[in-house]
Design brief:
Strand order of the largest sheet of chain B: 3-2-1-5-4
Number of strands of chain B: 5
Shape of chain A: globular
Radius of gyration of chain A: 28 Å
Number of strands of chain A: 46
Oligomer: heterodimer
Largest interface: A-B, 11 and 8 residues
Distance between the termini of chain A: 98 Å
Order of helices and strands of chain B: HEEEHHHEEH
CATH architecture of the largest domain in chain A: 7 Propeller
Distance between the termini of chain B: 17 Å
CATH class of the largest domain in chain A: Mainly Beta
Number of domains of chain B: 1
CATH superfamily of the largest domain in chain A: YVTN repeat-like/Quinoprotein amine dehydrogenase
Largest sheet of chain A: 11 strands, mixed
Number of helices of chain A: 8
Number of domains of chain A: 2
Chain lengths: 652, 196
């Protein structure tokens, strides 16, 4: 009996423990996801997602495209990094895209995607992204989801505060993260305060051609410039840049650049800058930088070396820049849809300041200044502030808007998104993120008319959220429903590289512009072969040009003889298909660079060095047809002094 | 002699034929799962075009696997002289309306019907030729399989369901023939009544 009682006790205790485990387990799930979440993210087979999000690939140097709400990755766009998958940065046509004043730089650290805008709303034409390391801005054409232009930013030591666009994409801005001597020179690092400067750059987008050019740069005090946003509506004509390290520390920044209670938002009057440029109030500085663009008809990237830039110095151009004091080491600077409020997330601050654009103008008019730095007036904090969001989470970084009167701020340290009301500055909701959110993104959330509906949390850490894969874990984003009063977590999804920032827009804006293939008659590539009868092999000295065509399911020529060891062979592959979704690949055994992926109507060139005597096969790598496996050919390589004549053909 | 009303009807029947220059005679729709965007041919009095841009080339690209000859509209003589036949029929019809000779209308109608039948037969024979005279070196050879598209209706050809139907141009021709038959009927009954 005693034993039985004891047993009963043990059993009951076990039941209690198990029940408790089940209960807490349920609690955890309840806490994070509501029961109907899966139905909200389900996209039926064959259907498009409602939105498409372009997420920066961080240190992968690329840009990845995900459907929302499904979180499905369906495309990685090659931007700053070579991509052997399609020969980007390897083919002769695309290599010039990655040229810089430092030579060929086949990688970068890509941070902030920004959609082109018309009237302050995404227009679906282009998306821009910055190269943070080797200062660059890339333009991706959304007709084809390809990088079509990259401009280097001279006099910059890290292009972080970039590439934010003005209301009609008149300009794309860039601000240097690190200050350096400008022009750069050999000085003691400890002479920072004396020698180091920053620059803010304005890149013009030509209305007709869509081409970028560096319009002018503004020389600014040597702080670290972090993020930016252009004004809109009433604040159109201005651009705002956060800066930290107003202490001008050059070592142990984590301590030394965190001392001041307030750093700044720099308000730049770019319309006035245009006027100063027109009046000739600039100096021309010798600066070497590259401008690379894809020539659409020649289908070949061109690299232009630029040599000088127009520079404005605000020290003697009053009205060009004002500093708005902002606590503490601010990161994001975000302008609400009305264009009146400027939110700056002080990453070490305990409150979130919201500046008022109209109060700022009034304060300028009434000269409510609190000193100046290099002749740039500092406004009085109390004169420009509209309100402060109290308890906005720890480490508020970045804010976007839903168009319904609410703002959403990411808080890195407290790992949450905080929803607050514009005007009352009250926090109305908060939701945890897993873990350590950086930026966040609402479709159209930095525009005049946000599409709303979702916020994406772009997280820095994943820990236990995914299958452990050794020390290196996946990067991740989270989808949160913001259509109701309370935010609801819907989905976790893994991402390519570190998703610093993302922008999204509705699918129909992308569908309507999409190109199906390149018209062969418009192909003006220098090495195009427009029909099989023109396929040929031409030798001049040790250089051999193979004019090759691909169409289902053969190459012309597919037998090539007369190649000698030491030859530099250029395979100019033209895809003759004029049909949707029929790319052909081209791969040569042992190629030291990459394969090619050639779109219908396109020409791409692979350089190949013939090294050893023998037979070398080549083949199509993209499964194109029922006879794809047969789509192949042979190259005969003879000795350097052989007299095997150049012959070629298909089917003879 | 024909009544004024009949003459007007014949003018309409003749001029209607000019619409065949604006609309295809026949449409062949090729349906396959891999072509959600559609694939097919429009056959006109003077040309063959794709339902989408480049469809003729796309179809030729597919057909080379089964050894079918490429469809090259320039090599089809009918497309050269059919427009002349149409123009001739229009002018002939207008002449009948102008002269009012009812007997000539019988000739016009008879000729028209014969030409239409020859046209359909010719179209069938082209289809037969494309479907049967296949390159013996074709990569895909299915024993006993031929690829003649149907004249009317649908037929499964390997993975493709071919649907062939007359289009606006042919319907216009049919209406033109019906109007002229109706005119003959109208004209005859009135003449009979007048005699009584």
């Amino acid at each position: 009996m005693k034993n039985l009682l004891k047993n009963k006790f043990v059993i009951s205790a076990a039941i209690l423990i198990v029940a408790g485990m089940i209960y807490t387990g349920c609690e955890n799930v309840k806490e994070s996801v509501s029961g109907d979440a899966s139905s909200h993210v389900y996209v039926a087979p064959g259907s498009y997602d409602e939105f498409y999000a372009f997420m920066s690939g961080g240190f992968s140097g690329q840009l990845a495209v995900y459907g929302l709400p499904s979180g499905r990755l369906f495309r990685t766009i090659s931007v700053f990094s070579q991509n052997p998958e399609k020969g980007y940065g390897y083919s002769e046509e695309t290599k010039p895209m990655l040229m810089t004043s430092y030579g060929f730089v086949p990688w970068d650290d890509a941070h902030h995607p920004e959609l082109s805008m018309t009237d302050g709303v995404p227009d679906g034409r282009y998306i821009f992204i910055n190269g943070n390391n080797t200062p660059r801005i890339a333009k991706i054409d959304l007709k084809e989801f390809e990088t079509t232009e990259i401009i280097e930013i001279p006099n910059s030591a890290g292009n972080h505060g970039s590439p934010f666009v003005t209301e009609n994409t008149e300009y794309i801005v860039a601000a240097t993260r690190f200050s350096i001597p400008i022009p750069n020179k050999d000085v003691a690092i400890s002479s920072y305060k004396e020698n180091f400067k920053g620059t803010i750059s304005f890149i013009k987008l030509d209305k007709e051609s869509g081409k970028m050019s560096l319009a002018f740069q503004i020389l600014v005090p040597g702080f670290n410039y972090d993020l930016a946003h252009a004004g809109k509506g009433p604040s159109h004509g201005w651009a705002f840049f956060t800066c930290y390290n107003s202490e001008q520390a050059n070592t142990l920044l984590e301590i030394n650049a965190s001392k001041n209670d307030k750093d700044f938002v720099a308000a730049v009057n770019w319309q006035l800058a245009e006027k100063f440029i027109a009046e000739g109030k600039y100096t021309t500085m010798k600066s070497r930088y590259f401008h690379n663009y894809m020539d659409e008809s020649e289908q070949t990237a061109k690299s232009e070396e630029m040599t000088e830039v127009k520079v404005l110095n605000p020290e003697n151009l009053p009205g060009l820049i004002y500093y708005l004091p902002t606590p503490k080491s601010p990161h994001g600077v975000d302008v609400d849809p009305s264009g009146e409020y400027i939110v700056a997330g002080g990453k070490l601050a305990s409150l979130l300041p919201v500046h008022s654009f109209s109060r700022f103008l009034k304060a300028v008019e009434e000269k409510k200044f609190d000193g100046a730095i290099n002749n740039i007036p500092i406004l009085q904090y109390d004169a420009v502030i509209a309100g402060e969001v109290k308890n906005p989470g720890l480490g508020p970084l970045h804010t976007e808007f839903d168009g319904q009167g609410y703002a959403y701020t990411s808080a890195f340290i407290s790992s949450e998104i905080v929803k607050w009301k514009i005007g009352t500055w009250e926090v109305v909701d908060r939701i945890p993120t897993y873990y350590s959110i950086g930026h966040l993104s609402i479709p159209g959330g930095d525009s005049k008319k946000p599409f709303g509906k979702y916020v994406i949390a772009l997280n820095k850490i994943t820990k236990d959220r995914y299958l452990p894969t050794g020390p290196e874990l996946t990067q991740s984003a989270q989808l949160i429903d913001i259509s109701g009063e309370k935010m609801k977590l819907l989905l976790d999804f893994p991402t390519v590289g570190e998703p610093h920032y993302a922008q999204a827009l509705p699918a129909d804006m992308l569908v309507k512009n999409s190109k199906k293939f390149y018209k062969i008659e418009d192909n003006k590539n220098r090495y195009v072969t427009k029909s099989e009868k023109d396929a040929r092999v031409e030798r001049s000295g040790n250089v051999v040009h193979v004019y090759l065509t691909a169409i289902r399911s053969h190459f012309a020529p597919d037998n090539i003889e007369g190649i000698r060891t030491g030859d530099d062979v250029y395979f100019h592959v033209t895809n003759l298909e004029q049909d949707w979704d029929i790319p052909h690949g081209f791969a040569v055994k042992g190629a030291n660079n990459s394969e090619l992926l050639v779109m219908p109507g396109e020409t791409r060139t692979l350089h190949w060095k013939a090294k050893d005597e023998g037979i070398v096969p080549f083949y199509c790598t993209d499964f194109c047809s029922a006879l794809h496996q047969e789509m192949s050919g042979y190259i005969r390589v003879s000795s350097a002094n052989s007299n095997v004549p150049v012959t070629f053909g298909t089917g003879n | 002699m024909m009544k004024k009303k009949s003459k007007i009807l014949i003018v309409i029947a003749s001029l209607l034929l000019l619409l065949t220059f604006l609309f295809p005679l026949w449409k062949i729709d090729l349906q396959a799962p891999q072509y959600p965007e559609g694939l097919g041919l429009n056959i006109w009095v003077n040309q063959i075009t794709g339902l989408n841009e480049n469809d003729v080339d796309r179809i030729n690209g597919l057909n080379h696997y089964i050894g079918m000859k490429a469809i090259t509209p320039d090599d089809i003589p009918e497309l050269q002289y059919m427009p002349y036949i149409i123009v001739f029929m229009v002018l002939f019809g207008l002449t009948i309306a102008f002269t009012g000779k009812r007997k000539l209308l019988y000739v016009w109608l008879g000729l028209f019907v014969v030409l239409a039948i020859i046209g359909l037969y010719d179209f069938y024979m082209w289809g037969y030729d494309y479907g049967h005279n296949l390159n013996p070196d074709a990569p895909i050879k299915v024993p006993g399989m031929t690829y003649q598209p149907p004249l009317f209706g649908s037929k499964q050809l390997l993975n493709i369901n071919a649907v062939s139907l007359p289009y606006i141009g042919s319907i216009v021709i049919l209406i033109s023939i019906l109007i002229s038959i109706f005119t003959l009927f109208l004209d005859r009954t009135k003449t009979v009544k007048a005699k009584v």
